[in-house]
Amino acid sequence: MHYLNAQMAKNAIEKMKKFHHDLESIHNSYGLDFFQDLGRRNILMSRPQEVFFCQEIQKQFSTAISDGRTGQPDILVPEINKELECKITTKRKGGSWSFQADYATLERKGSCDFLYVCCDEYFENFAVFYFKDLTVSDFKPPAPGSRGKSRLLVRNCIERCTPLVGKIENRNEQFILKAKAKLLAAETLYEEKMAKKSLDYWQSNPASYSISLEKV
Asked: What is the pTM of this model?
């Protein structure tokens, strides 16, 4: 059962944007650069994410709570027996997105819903993805030095993903279509060879995904 929709996500983001603007103003008043460390900025925005999304859920399920204490679910919806983990992330310098979870916590719970908010540097454009019933099998085991954080294998659970804001698209499918078009249009053996090589590559490799943000 979906307990979040696009309008609820946009309502929560609007509140997050106002909170973000207030934090930026406070930092500026003390001569601090709020955007110097985006990871730290996202940590400051994580609690507002939980609270504002919980407020939206409460409009439908009044007993939904966001406790905030260590060890407690980010959002609990007792009426439908759902726990929702909330994460916020910004694109890495290399161009990738990091969808993470605490492996030990998820292993203990068995399964959990996840809400990933992707944002740009200045908190103007967003993508919001709701993943249903994720388990440890949907994540890579923690790497040494990762402090127990695991990376989501999107290809394992894309059918359980509901985009609420923005888009998530299969890059392989996009490149396969381009390679097929090039193959049909090939006029030389070399062009045909290169198109086939590209087609084979994208058909044989595991799916990878691109994310498009949306202004809110």
From this structure: 0.87
